[in-house]
Amino acid sequence: MIQQRQNFDWLLKELYDGVPGIEMIVVLSADGLRIARYAGDPDAADRVAAACAGLQSLAGAVAQEIHSSDGEMNLVMIELNGGYFYLMSAGANAYLAVLADVRCEAGRMSGMMRDLVVRIGAHLTSPPRRNGQTV
């Protein structure tokens, strides 16, 4: 059920167990590479991670248009037919993404994601890459 590079299993499981309706949790780098996942198909997690890279870039571009904003994306939530998608900044060059069905409570989800990021944010950072290699 878990595919990971670091030992996030109990932390991601805690989020999974704490909010009804979660279908997949993905931790990803800013360039769209999956760092860890809980639940869901590994190939789907890779696709979600890649899509999130574009979404966080888009959110950052929009944030720059808000005069009082520092241009950084904190949380993106998308309501879909049949569920929700959440993407939260989780440290330098790292993000936490969650897909959930309609049973999910939006406030509970964002609160638990925020708590998880606060607890392990330093561990969710992804070093910058150049030409596919860690710098």
TrEMBL record:
**InterPro entries in alphabetical order:** Mycobact_SerProt_Inhib_Rv3364c (IPR053141), Roadblock/LAMTOR2_dom (IPR004942)
Alphabetical list of SUPFAM superfamilies matching this protein: Roadblock/LC7 domain
Pfam families according to UniProt:
Robl_LC7
Q: Where is the Roadblock/LAMTOR2 domain?
A: 9-100
Gene3D superfamilies the record matches: Dynein light chain 2a, cytoplasmic (3.30.450.30)
Superkingdom of the source species: Bacteria
Question: Which protein are we looking at?
Answer: Dynein regulation protein LC7
Taxonomy of the source species: Bacteria, Bacillati, Actinomycetota, Actinomycetes, Kitasatosporales
